[in-house]
User: What shape does this take?
Amino acid sequence: MNKFFLIAILGTLLYAQKGLLPESTVAVVNGTAISVDERDKEVGKLLPKEYFHTNVNEEKLKGLQEKALDALIDKTLLYNYALSKKIKVTNSEVDEVMTNLVAAYNSKKDLENDIKRLGFTKESFREAVRKDEVLKKLYIKEVEANLSDAELKKYYNENMYKFKEPEKLRVRLIYVKNDPKVADGKQKAKKKIEEAQAMLKKGESFAYVAQTYSNDASRVMGGDMGYLHKGMLDPTVEEKALSMDVGAMSEIIEKDVGFFIVKVEEKTAANQLSFEKVKDGLKKELKEKEEDKRKADLLGKLKKNSVIVK
Assistant: This one.
């Protein structure tokens, strides 16, 4: 253990022994203090810009403060670890980031206004940028995952079931609700669905009849339920629809909740998606998962060998 780290640990232990922190400090990580001001700046980042000046209730504010403090503790651990690994950021690199930030805004003034809104001075903002760039370099060095096509293909081959599109149905539905609160509700619902069925048999469009008679939310779309995967319809209605040909319309289907008529508009068979089709999405998913794991593992090791007082 080097001398600097030992002094930092002893400093933090002193805070822990006293059982309290200075009023301006909300946490100490291995001797590095996190101030109320730093935490509040982090809260400002979490709040959407348009809500920054509006009142936030006490419970929500407390939650944001806890989230901000946890993020700052993680950043402090990672930043100090990066420094121990001799990771540095030059002034010219900070200048480049600042130039890119100005370019991303409508004007330099807009950037300066946002910096001020978050409670930074120009100098403290540059220092925050420097720290972020140090963390980015650490991320690239110890967290970033670059998965090869061979690794992706191996995962795909071992988990092909995850990349199979189930059979899909596109149906139109008429549902007449049986309201138990209404006297003779079932009889009234049955009469209504029979009227709807009679109109359909006379050649009236399914969309019009659905709009006129259905209690389902899909009535506004002429009963069109869109594409549905297995399990998204009432089981009895779904079983019937799956057994029907495209273009076919069912008889009245009776359930305790009411009465249904379903028409099958389209059917799509189950389909195994190719590796090439899922490759980009799979790469993004596995990369994020692996990087989250690496970061969590690194933070776990750092916290195990740290003293943190909040």
Observations:
- The chain has two domains: 3-145+293-309, 167-269.
- The two ends are 24 Å apart (CA to CA).
- The chain has eleven helices and nine strands.
- Residues 1-19 have pLDDT under 50 and may be disordered.
